[in-house]
């Protein structure tokens, strides 16, 4: 029994160091992937694809396995020798990192499977707001196309048909106030929500903006249009699309819905 105890201690000591390395290194790895991509030290395929999915998930499983094994062997040593051996904090942290990380990836996968791939969302499917030529000229060829017509969903249907099925409530907002007032309210909403407003023309009733996510710096482009309804009121439309061709997990649809709801509530 004494030799067995020595064997356990011989295993637990290096395993504790492995747990400590994983508990500290795995979060650092994901931080490097996220912020390295955001600050453009690495490209999106490397940061989100290779570092996060290809390497990141096995690291999370390794952290969970190492931490769980260390805790189990420490318990075995406690039962066999009536004395606790091995580190406790680093295995616990390794387990927490593994469980939290795998839970996060499971939630992301769940959202991805529950929502259609819809990277271009608008309140006007027939005549969506258009971006200015100068804005289009600044975009890279690797970004999502700005031309709405002809875009197809994963199932081959038009993007408009996919959106109509997934988000039937998204529609042009009809406001009884004058376009000038509504435009100012829409612009105020954009600044309040920290959109980076670029081109803005009260006379044309439109402005362009952009956003960037905290993690990975995923960018979305936004255009808002306010038109006179011919009766002293306003017709308000918004379009929001992901710049990178990866699943946005419903981010743009939520933005369009939140903006439309806010404009409609302001009109009451």
Overall morphology: elongated
The beta-strand count equals 6
- From the 3D coordinates, which CATH architecture of the largest domain would you assign? 2-Layer Sandwich
CATH class label of the largest domain: Alpha Beta
List low-confidence stretches.
none
N-to-C span: 78 Å
Mean pLDDT over all positions: 91
The CATH topology of the largest domain comes to Alpha-D-Glucose-1,6-Bisphosphate, Chain A, domain 4
The number of helices is: 7
Provide the domain count. 2
Gyration radius from CA atoms, angstroms: 26 Å
Largest sheet: 6 strands, antiparallel
Element order, helices and strands?
A: HHHEHHEHEEEEH
Strand-pairing-aware structural class: alpha+beta
Strand fraction: 5-15%
Helix content: 40-55%
Transmembrane segments: 12-35, 55-80, 87-106
Protein name: DUF1499 domain-containing protein
Pfam families: DUF1499
Keywords: Membrane, Transmembrane, Transmembrane helix
């Amino acid at each position: 029994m004494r030799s067995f105890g020595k064997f356990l201690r011989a295993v637990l000591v290096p395993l504790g160091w492995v747990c400590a390395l994983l508990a500290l290194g795995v979060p650092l790895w994901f931080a490097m992937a996220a912020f390295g991509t955001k600050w453009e030290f690495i490209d999106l395929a490397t940061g989100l694809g290779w570092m996060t999915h290809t390497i990141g998930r096995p690291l999370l499983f390794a952290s969970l396995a190492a931490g769980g094994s260390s805790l189990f062997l420490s318990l075995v040593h406690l039962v066999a020798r009536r004395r606790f051996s091995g580190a406790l904090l680093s295995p616990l942290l390794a387990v927490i990192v593994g469980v939290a990380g795998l839970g996060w990836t499971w939630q992301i996968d769940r959202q991805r499977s529950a929502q259609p791939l819809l990277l271009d969302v608008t309140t006007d499917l027939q005549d969506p707001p258009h971006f200015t030529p100068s804005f289009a000229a600044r975009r890279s060829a690797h970004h999502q196309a700005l031309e709405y017509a002809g875009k197809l969903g994963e199932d081959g249907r038009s993007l408009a048909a996919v959106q109509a099925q997934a988000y039937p409530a998204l529609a042009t907002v009809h406001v009884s106030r004058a376009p000038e007032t509504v435009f100012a309210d829409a612009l105020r909403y954009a600044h309040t929500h920290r959109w980076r407003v670029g081109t803005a023309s009260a006379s044309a009733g439109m402005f362009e903006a952009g956003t960037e996510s905290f993690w990975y710096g995923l960018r979305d482009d936004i255009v808002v249009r306010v038109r006179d309804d011919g009766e002293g009121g306003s017709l308000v439309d918004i379009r929001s699309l992901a710049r990178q061709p990866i699943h946005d997990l419903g981010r743009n649809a939520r933005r369009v819905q939140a903006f439309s709801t806010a404009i409609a509530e302001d009109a009451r």
